[in-house]
Amino acid sequence: MAPTSPLMPKAVAAWAKALSVLASRNSVPPRDNVIDGGFVVPPPRCIVSPAQEHIVATLFKSWLRVRDAVLSRLRSPQAQPVKLSNKCWRSLLDVSGGLHTGAKSTTRSGTRHGEMRDVLEHSFGMDKASSFMDAPIYWAGELITSVGLPDAEIAKAIVWELCEFNFRHELEALDGILDGSGMTWTDRHALLNQCWVGLGNKVDVVTEANKGLGATCVMDRLPFLQILHKVMRTWQGVKPVELLDQFPEESSAHNHRGHVERIEFNLAMFYCESFLNVYGRAASIPHHL
Fold first, then answer.
1. How far apart are CA 13 and CA 18, in angstroms?
2. pTM for the structure as a whole
3. Of 57, 120, 54, nearest in space to 88 by CA
4. Where are the beta strands (DSSP E) in 11-139?
5. CA 110 → CA 91, 157, 240, distances in Å?
6. How many CB atoms lie within 10 A of CB 108?
7. Quick one: three-class SS letters along the chain?
8. Are 106 and 99 in contact (CB under 8 A)?
9. pLDDT digits 0-9 by tens, 233-242
10. Would you say which domain of life the source belongs to (predicted)?
11. Is 143 helix (H, G, I), strand (E, B) or coil?
């Protein structure tokens, strides 16, 4: 289930409904039939879900400490993205935030923390946690000096960026598995990048929030839904009728908005169900800020 924290930005309604419908079915494919689908940045729940506010505050700062290193690798055409599970991302943030000492442990949790310490050093090029624990923390070029939680507006922007990075990467990865169009990688990548404002591996909160598939008005989402429709028409699987038909042209008919909303929901359902079948977990989805 999606986190209910007040620090979570609001999910686009059609996509949230799709996840809810799938959750109510309680149908998860056997583990043997799914691909390991880690997250390229921490899923928001591993930061905002703890009950203790001081833990949440520490996890926000932990992420901002490692953010530049993680995003630098994610944006590099020469490096494969590091995909980690929710538990591994939480362990990595525990290490970078000093919530886990360096003491060796033979427990499963202790082993995972040790592995994440190695990931920080070898995959993200960061020295031992003790060397950057006292480094200044920045967001959008501004120094974060608050002892507790960041301001709610800043916290939501940080979480929105995480949601958007994971959504864009997951859409690209799923398309790479399901697409049957025969397009070249260059042409397909260019088409996918029309699903959002900006680029798949570069997210700018200031210029891109509340735009694209996460725009607050469905009619503003319309041109991006048209591209998503074009992308998903070539996917494998039993498609809803909305994907078999051409996307409707813009119209002044009184029911056009309702028609677009129904198409959006069916696209979201097909996407989320396809993702679940391939990766065995819920998909990351677009959010408003």
1. 9
2. 0.89
3. 120
4. 138-139
5. 9, 31, 46
6. 9
7. CCCCCCCCCCECHHHHHHHHHHHHHCCCCCHHHCCCCCECCCCCHHHHCCCCHHHHHHHHHHHHHHHHHHHHHHHCCCCCCCCECHHHHHHHHHHHCCCCCCCCCCCHHHHHHHHHHHHHHHCCCCCCHHHCCCCCCEECCEECCCCCCCCHHHHHHHHHHHHHHHHHHHHHHHHHHHECCCCCHHHHHHHHHHHCCCECCECCHHHHCCCHHHCCCHHHHHHHHHHHHHHHCCECCCCCHHHHCCCCCCCCCCCHHHHHHHHHHHHHHHHHHHHHHHHCCCCCCCECC
8. no
9. 999 888 888 7
10. Eukaryota
11. strand
- The model's pLDDT over 125-175, given as tens digits with 9 standing for 90+, comes to 766 555 566 678 889 888 888 778 888 999 999 999 999 999 999 999 999
CB-based contacts of 163: which residues, under 8 Å, 6+ apart? 9, 44, 284, 285, 286, 287
Retrieve residue 289's tokens.
């800020």
Report helix, strand and coil shares of the chain as percent, to nearest 5: 55, 5, 40
57: amino acid identity, one letter: A
Q: Assess contact for 56 and 48: CB atoms under 8 A.
A: yes
